[in-house]
């Protein structure tokens, strides 16, 4: 058989296969007319023009991702409402392009491009006044008619990962680009509940303002009193990941920015007599100097350019997690402990890094979380996980000395909170997650209850509602700021593709 005939036969076979898939009937086939081959050629060209392609045949291309949306009911102690269709920041909607190519039997190269949704309607941005989760001047800057002006976000995504890598099976992988840094380890989710109950407790209600007993709004948000990270950061870096060694250990290290953000972590995973174990410990250090937008850095005390390149403050954070799952029974327990130490001895001349929510005079902070329950495939669809959880978050919103100030200048109708020296936020929660294996989906219904003790040194003032709060200049005797508790119930689904 010559080449031309083989090509014609191959194209006819492809066309016949598409006909079967698309359910082309014999009557439709008869409509092709006398010049059937020309018509087949035209249809094949049509299909080829509408097929997704990649640039070459040497690097494979895979498109994956997830769609994660939910309904949020909240109660801030004085008011409650329901927001529909929000993106769940616990594990945002995103899509990923990954590629791999085999260089030798032991060496591969590839890339990772991951874009997540960052437009309005995300759970970490909404508040009592804004169910759209708008950002920037859309809230109360120039041209914003009200808190509920239609969503006009000019973008729909944010780059989580933009990196290439090279891996040798014997020596490990090196990644270059924007990627997850090595660092603090938090809860490792063996139970499959993180979609609705992540290790960070402020990704659902972080934008909500606290309320006083008389109904007043305070500039202190719930997000300010919880950990600002609870996971490794993402930045431009070089990262190394070792192969698995000693039957379950993996070591990772990274260095980013201009060498002033680095971290390392050690992870372990294994199974013994039906018990799965996952654990890890990590440390990270940041001394990056923040700069304003423009051709030269914005100046400390009016300086600009090289004269302003002084040493920054430093953040040293560490944390470890341990998770256990008894496979036969489905019983599990998982959790973590972490701490961030802030060092900015002279914030007037030494700018702070901004990492881990650092501001001038930030108090050292800790967080721990434990989750426990049972996960079992009782109904045949996939595992059903039922669990309870408890978390404590100390001093994430506090400052040393005279304390930390929270200004209500850009929040009409709210009150300042000045001189915050201690914050102690506790979180109780419970939930159920149902995996649907046939659809690569997790559905969940979760509840978290937030309460907080806050001490501040601002002058005690009496507002128009007749209730005192720390709103004057900081530096007076410490006193307790009365806050209402907050409840959040979320129900949603994460569908992976």
Explain this structure to me?
The two termini are 43 Å apart. By secondary structure, this protein is mainly β. It has a domain at 72-87 and 187-234 and 251-496. Helix content is 8%, strand content 44%. The strands form 3 sheets. Strands 1-3-4-5-6-9-10-11-12-13-14-15-16-18-19-23 form a 16-stranded antiparallel β-barrel. A two-stranded antiparallel ribbon has the order 7-8. The protein has a two-stranded antiparallel sheet with strand order 20-21. Residues 1-34, 135-155 and 296-308 have low confidence and may be disordered. A hairpin with a 4-residue loop joins strand 10 (249-256) and strand 11 (261-272). The chain has helices at residues 3-21, 26-30, 36-49, 137-140, and strands spanning 60-75, 80-87, 94-102, 107-116, 158-168, 172-180, 209-211, 217-221, 234-241, 249-256, 261-272, 275-286, 314-326, 331-343, 365-376, 384-394, 404-406, 417-436, 441-456, 460-462, 468-470, 479-481, 486-496. The protein has 4 helices and 23 strands. Helix 1 (3-21) crosses helix 3.
Key features?
8% helix, two-stranded antiparallel ribbon, disordered N terminus, 497 residues, single chain
Characterize this entry briefly.
The protein is mainly beta and 497 residues long. It has helices spanning 3-21, 26-30, 36-49, 137-140; strands spanning 60-75, 80-87, 94-102, 107-116, 158-168, 172-180, 209-211, 217-221, 234-241, 249-256, 261-272, 275-286, 314-326, 331-343, 365-376, 384-394, 404-406, 417-436, 441-456, 460-462, 468-470, 479-481, 486-496.
């Amino acid at each position: 058989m010559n080449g031309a005939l083989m090509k014609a036969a191959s194209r006819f076979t492809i066309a016949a296969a598409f006909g079967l898939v698309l359910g082309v009937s014999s009557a439709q086939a008869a409509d092709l007319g006398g010049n059937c081959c020309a018509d087949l050629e035209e249809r094949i060209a049509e299909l080829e023009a509408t097929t997704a392609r990649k640039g070459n045949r040497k690097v494979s291309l895979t498109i994956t991702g997830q769609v994660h949306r939910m309904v949020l009911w909240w109660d801030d102690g004085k008011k409650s409402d329901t927001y529909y269709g929000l993106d769940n920041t616990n594990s945002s909607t995103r899509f990923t392009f990954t590629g791999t190519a085999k260089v030798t039997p032991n060496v591969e190269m590839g890339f990772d491009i991951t874009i997540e949704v960052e437009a309005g309607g995300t759970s970490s941005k909404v508040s009592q006044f804004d169910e759209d989760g708008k950002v920037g001047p859309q809230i109360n800057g120039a041209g914003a008619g009200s808190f509920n002006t239609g969503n006009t976000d000019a973008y729909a995504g944010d780059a989580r990962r933009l990196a290439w890598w090279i891996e040798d099976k014997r020596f490990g992988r090196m990644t270059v680009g924007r990627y997850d840094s090595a660092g603090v380890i938090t809860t490792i989710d063996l139970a499959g509940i993180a979609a609705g109950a992540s290790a960070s407790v402020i990704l659902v209600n972080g934008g909500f303002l606290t309320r006083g007993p008389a109904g007043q709004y305070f500039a202190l948000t719930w997000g300010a009193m919880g950990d600002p990270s609870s996971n490794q950061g993402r930045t431009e870096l070089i990262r190394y990941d070792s192969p698995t060694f000693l039957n379950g250990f993996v070591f990772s290290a990274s260095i980013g920015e201009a060498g002033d953000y680095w971290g390392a972590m050690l992870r372990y995973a294994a199974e013994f007599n039906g018990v799965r174990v996952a654990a890890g410990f990590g440390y990270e250090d940041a001394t990056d100097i923040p700069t304003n937008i423009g051709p030269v850095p914005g100046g400390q005390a009016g300086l600009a350019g090289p004269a302003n390149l002084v040493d920054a403050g430093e953040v040293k954070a560490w944390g470890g997690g341990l998770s256990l799952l008894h496979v036969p029974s489905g019983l599990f327990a998982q959790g973590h402990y972490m701490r961030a130490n802030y060092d900015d001895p002279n914030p007037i001349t030494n700018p702070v890094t901004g990492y881990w929510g650092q501001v001038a005079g930030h108090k050292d902070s800790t967080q721990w979380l434990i989750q426990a329950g049972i996960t079992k495939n009782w109904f045949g669809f996939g595992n059903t996980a039922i669990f309870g959880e408890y978390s404590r978050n100390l001093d994430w919103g506090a400052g040393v000395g005279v304390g930390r100030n929270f200004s209500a200048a850009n929040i009409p109708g709210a009150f300042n909170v000045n001189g915050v020296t201690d914050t102690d936020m506790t979180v109780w929660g419970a939930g159920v997650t149902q995996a649907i294996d046939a659809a690569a989906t997790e559905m969940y219904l979760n509840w978290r209850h937030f309460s907080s003790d806050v001490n501040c040194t601002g002058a005690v003032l009496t507002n128009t509602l007749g209730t005192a709060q720390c709103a004057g200049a900081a530096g007076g005797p410490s006193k307790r700021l009365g806050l209402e508790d907050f409840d959040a119930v979320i129900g949603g689904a994460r569908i992976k593709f």
